[in-house]
Write a structure and sequence with these properties.
442 residues, mainly alpha, Rhopdopsin 7-helix transmembrane proteins, Hypothetical protein af1432, two-stranded antiparallel sheet, 2 strands, elongated
Length: 442
C-alpha cells in the first residue's frame, strides 16, 4: 500500500469530524452515501470481472446485498423522516443486519473453495439472508437494538462483539491464505477489516445516535471503505492495464528486434549499425536533457531507421564502387520506404517522423522531403548526427572506416550547416568524455 494512502486517512478523519460538528445528520448521510457508492463500484467491478476472480465476484455479490440494507439504514436514521412511526431502533437494526451480513460474507468468501460453481450458491445465501433480515426489521420481529433515552440493547452490543470476532477470524484467514486470487488484495483487506473492527468497537459505546462514539465509528467505517476501494480498483483495474501495456511494450520490442535484424541480414556490412546508432543517439538525447518520452521515441526510431533498405536491391547495397545517380536514387528512397513499412504500428511519439526525416539536413540539401532548419524535428536532428558518426566509423563495401578524428571533424565542420549545432556539441562532448559503442568495449 502506497505511503500517500496512509496520509489520506487523517485528512478524511478531520474533514468528517468538522462536518459532523456542523450537522451530524448531514455527516451521517454523507458517510453512508459514500459507503453506498463504494459498494456500487464493487458490484460493478464484480460484474465486469465476470467470475474471472472468485474473491472479487463474491465481494461484489456481498456488497450488492449490503448496499440495499445500508440505503434503508440511511433513510430510516433519526431525523430523516422517510419512515413515519419508526424510531432510531429500526436504523440501528438495519445497521447491525448490514454489518452481520458483511462480516460473515467476507469470512465465507475466503472459506469457500475457489470454484466458480460456489459463487451462485454464495449469492443465493446472502440474498435470502438480506431479504429475511429486512422483512424482520420491517415487521417488528427483529430484536430491539436501541431504546430512546436508554441507549443500546444487550443484543446489539453482543452482536457487535460477535461481528468483531468474525472480523478477527477473517483477518486470520487472510493471513494464512496462499490463494493467488486472494494474495493481491490481502494487505488492503486486512487494513480495512482492522478499521471496521475499530468502528464496531466504537459502536458498542454510544447512548446518543448523534454522539461522539457514533461519529468515530462512522469515520472508521468511511476510511475502511476507502481502503477497500483502493485495493480492489488498484488491483482489479490499474494493475491488469499496466500488465497489458507492459506486454504490448515487450511485444513491440521483440518485433522491433526482428525487423532490425532482418534489415542487417540483407546488408551484412552494416551489422549492428542500427543498434549502435541507437546507443549514441540516446546518449546525445540524454546529454541534451530531452524528455523520457522523446528519448524512447528516438531509441525506437534509431533501431528501425534503415528498415526501408529491405526494398533497395542487394547489388546496390553491397556495391564496392561509387554509386551512380540512379543507384543513389534508390538509396534515397529508404527513409520513405521505412515510414511506409512501419506506419501501421501504433507508436507513441514522433517515431515515424524521426525515421522519415533522419537524412534531412539543416540547409535543405537532405532527403526525401528537402526539409530545412526548424522544420526538422529535434529527434531526427539527433538521429542524423548519430547515423553519420556511426557510418563513418564503420567499414563499407566501397571504403574503409574513417578515423575518429576524421569523423568528428566532419560533424564539427558542418555544425550549423548540415547538422544541428547543439546536437554536434553534445556528441563531441560525449566522445571527449570517452564514449565508445558497447560492441567496441567488448
Amino acid at each position: 500500500m502506497k505511503r500517500w494512502h496512509f496520509l489520506l486517512w487523517p485528512v478524511i478523519a478531520i474533514v468528517s469530524w468538522l462536518v459532523s460538528r456542523y450537522n451530524f445528520l448531514f455527516f451521517h448521510s454523507l458517510v453512508e452515501l459514500t459507503a453506498i457508492v463504494a459498494a456500487g463500484i464493487l458490484v460493478t467491478i464484480a460484474i465486469v470481472a465476470r467470475g474471472k476472480n472468485n474473491l472479487v465476484t463474491r465481494i461484489g455479490t456481498l456488497y450488492g446485498v449490503v448496499m440495499i440494507i445500508d440505503v434503508l439504514h440511511t433513510l430510516s436514521y433519526k431525523g430523516m423522516g422517510v419512515f413515519p412511526g419508526w424510531s432510531s431502533n429500526q436504523a440501528t437494526q438495519f445497521w447491525i443486519l448490514g454489518r452481520a451480513i458483511e462480516a460473515s460474507g467476507l469470512a465465507l468468501a475466503l472459506l469457500l473453495p475457489g470454484r466458480r460453481d460456489y459463487n451462485k450458491k454464495y449469492l443465493t445465501v446472502f440474498l435470502i439472508a438480506g431479504f429475511a433480515g429486512i422483512t424482520a426489521v420491517s415487521t417488528g420481529f427483529f430484536p430491539d437494538c436501541f431504546i430512546e433515552g436508554v441507549g443500546l440493547t444487550s443484543f446489539k452490543v453482543s452482536m457487535e462483539y460477535l461481528i468483531i470476532a468474525v472480523i478477527a477470524l477473517t483477518i486470520w484467514l487472510l493471513y494464512k491464505s496462499e490463494s493467488e486470487e486472494i494474495r493481491p488484495y490481502r494487505n488492503y483487506f486486512m487494513v480495512a477489516l482492522l478499521l471496521t473492527a475499530a468502528g464496531e468497537l466504537a459502536f458498542t459505546l454510544y447512548t446518543d445516535v448523534y454522539g461522539f462514539s457514533n461519529m468515530l465509528g462512522h469515520i472508521f467505517r468511511l476510511i475502511s471503505y476507502v481502503v477497500i476501494l483502493q485495493g480492489v480498483i488498484y488491483r482489479s483495474l490499474k494493475e491488469p492495464l499496466d500488465t497489458i501495456y507492459s506486454k504490448m511494450g515487450r511485444t513491440l520490442e521483440e518485433v522491433m528486434n526482428i525487423v532490425s535484424e532482418t534489415t542487417e541480414i540483407k546488408d551484412p556490412y552494416t551489422g549492428g549499425h542500427q543498434k549502435r546508432v541507437a546507443q549514441l543517439a540516446c546518449k546525445i538525447a540524454e546529454k541534451m536533457r530531452l524528455s523520457p518520452s522523446n528519448r524512447e521515441s528516438l531509441r525506437m526510431a534509431a533501431r528501425l531507421h534503415d528498415v526501408g533498405k529491405l526494398f533497395v536491391p542487394t547489388d546496390i547495397i553491397s556495391k564496392v564502387t561509387a554509386l551512380n545517380e540512379i543507384e543513389y536514387g534508390f538509396i534515397k528512397e529508404h527513409p520513405g520506404k521505412s515510414y511506409e513499412l512501419l506506419k501501421g504500428i501504433p507508436f507513441d511519439g514522433p517515431v515515424l517522423d524521426t525515421i522519415l526525416q533522419h537524412h534531412e539536413r539543416l540547409d535543405g540539401s537532405g532527403y526525401p522531403c528537402n526539409l530545412a532548419g526548424d522544420d526538422i524535428i529535434i529527434t531526427a536532428r539527433i538521429l542524423a548526427v548519430a547515423d553519420v558518426v556511426e557510418a563513418m566509423l564503420s567499414n563499407r563495401p566501397h571504403r574503409r572506416a574513417h578515423s575518429l578524428n576524421e569523423t568528428l571533424s566532419e560533424i564539427k565542420t558542418n555544425s550549423g550547416k548540415l547538422y544541428d549545432s547543439q546536437v554536434v556539441e553534445a556528441c563531441l562532448s560525449l566522445f571527449d568524455g570517452g564514449f565508445a559503442f558497447e560492441s567496441d568495449k567488448e
